[in-house]
Amino acid sequence: MQTLVGTQKGQIYHLEINRPKSLNSMSSQLFQDFKAAVDIINKADDVRVVVLTGRGNHFCAGLDLKEAPLMFQFHEDMDQARKSIRIYDLLKDWQIAMTSLSRIKVPVIVGVQGYCLGGGVDLITSADIRYCSEDAKFSIKEIDLAMAPDIGTLQRLGLQNANTSLFRELAYTGRIFNAQEALKLGLVSKIVKNELLNEEIFKLAQLIATKSPIGCYTIKSILTREQNLDQHLDVMARTNMAMLFTNDVPIAITSSMTKTKAEYPKL
Ligand SMILES: CC/C=C\C=C\CC(=O)SCCNC(=O)CCNC(=O)[C@H](O)C(C)(C)COP(=O)(O)OP(=O)(O)OC[C@H]1O[C@@H](n2cnc3c(N)ncnc32)[C@H](O)[C@@H]1OP(=O)(O)O
Questions:
Q1: What is the pLDDT of residues 215-224, one digit of tens each?
Q2: Membrane-spanning regions, if any (predicted)?
Q3: pTM higher than 0.90 for the full model?
């Protein structure tokens, strides 16, 4: 089954995450499918706007936690440096998938309903415009996996909000926050009634599609210069190539999947 479905409707290209049984969690295949979709979109000269949604009741429950332990399965003879290089390569690959989304030539609009957790927040920060429904629930949830967000949230949302109490509180606690707080944070620009979300984002897409493609291209290329972003993301990947080898990660994943409290060793 395709993890990401792409359909062109006139000048609008609709990307839909298609893993509703696992609440659209992010498998390694999904990252590859994002990169492939971006290639198709960037080659199509008749696409004016991209709309990204998630099938089912939830936009995205973050990293696929059933697949995640496979990331850490290495040949028994492999030393720590070699394992770290494998993890660095994987993180860079996933960062590139997110960055490729932010560098789609035309504006990208996301509609978020239900849960948008962890990697889901990294994902939406790569879009130009984000609307959500009243029932949306967000979390910068990586801390509950004993890790720092490493594929975009800290760089695309955190650096601009680095000294705000709200962003730091959300990053340190992983607390679920609602649509109103997401609006306050600038994570979304509009909250709409659940049943109107799709209608509203496609209406916005139709409006933008009537504007000059050159004008839109120029605005996007200036706004998406993302100064020093690549360096920031690289520092993050280089940090987590070591930090992901903590014992805290397996403790956290088990606690998350079994819905029990994690007990961590002292620093
Ligand atoms: C390495 C660096 C790159 C990226 C790192 C990203 C980090 C993150 O993304 S951190 C966030 C990780 N995600 C989570 O911690 C969420 C885990 N899920 C939940 O807590 C709950 O499912 C819920 C979202 C609160 C919803 O709860 P509920 O309504 O009770 O539904 P469930 O029965 O729990 O779930 C239904 C179904 O979906 C499967 N599922 C949910 N989330 C995930 C997931 N993240 N990965 C894989 N599968 C998931 C869940 O297991 C259920 O499937 P079953 O087949 O019925 O087991």
A1: 999 999 999 8
A2: none
A3: yes
